[in-house]
Amino acid sequence: MGKTNSQDKVLAQNKKSFHDYFIEETFECGMVLTGTEIKSLRGGRANINDSFATIRNGEAFVHNLHISPFEQGNRSNPSDPTRARKLLLHKEQIKKLIGTVKQEGYTMVPLKIYVRNGYAKLLLGLARGKKNYDKRATEAKRDAQRDIQRALREKQKVAR
């Protein structure tokens, strides 16, 4: 549903979320920003690693998303860099998220922030937590795939 284009400029990415969660579905949503936050975002001054999303009163919010204050900013700089920011989603998407998050083990995790057509977008993942054995299995699968690719490259070099 929420796929990023190659021309989108990725500003922040949460790579650890793919290690800790099974990402079942993604949603692209806008963010309500104030003052000079977009300038700070474009400068790459955001940290998305410890952030999470919640739904309150039929509205989605992202928490612990750290956007550093803009250095050349003015009095419209927000005072709290980790304040809760409202996410812009359709009602149907919010209803779907509410229904799924009520199930045991599901959560909403921000995956990346990027700019599309001049607007900051957040890719929100509907995620289910991994157990330790799931993490080990994923790592073993990735290592096996890497070994296969390495062997194929070696075979192609010998054939030449």
Provide the CATH topology of the largest domain: Small Protein B, Chain: A
The percent range for helix content is 25-40%
- End-to-end gap: 42 Å
**Main sheet: which strands, in order across?**
1-8-9-2-7-5-4
- Name of the top-level CATH class of the largest domain: Mainly Beta
Mean pLDDT: 85
- SS elements, strand count: 9
Count up the domains.
2
How many H/I helices?
A: 4
In terms of quaternary structure, the protein is: single chain
CATH hierarchy: architecture of the largest domain: Beta Barrel
The geometry reads as: globular
Q: The biggest beta sheet, please?
A: 7 strands, antiparallel
What is the CATH homology-level superfamily of the largest domain?
Small protein B
Gist of the model:
By secondary structure, the chain is an alpha+beta fold. The chain is built from 4 helices and 9 strands, in the order βαβαβββββαββα.
How would you characterize the overall build of this protein?
This protein has 160 residues and is an alpha+beta fold. The protein has two domains: 9-129, Small Protein B, Chain: A; 131-160. 31% of the residues lie in helices and 35% in strands. A hairpin with a 2-residue loop joins strand 4 (52-56) and strand 5. It is globular and about 65 Å long. The chain starts with 8 loop residues before the first strand and ends with a helix. The mean pLDDT is 85.
Topology:
Elements (H helix, E strand, L loop, with lengths): L8 E5 L2 H5 E11 L5 H6 L3 E2 L4 E5 L2 E5 L2 E2 L17 E4 L2 H11 L4 E11 L2 E11 L2 H28 L1
Antiparallel strand pairs: 1-8, 2-7, 2-9, 3-6, 4-5, 5-7, 8-9
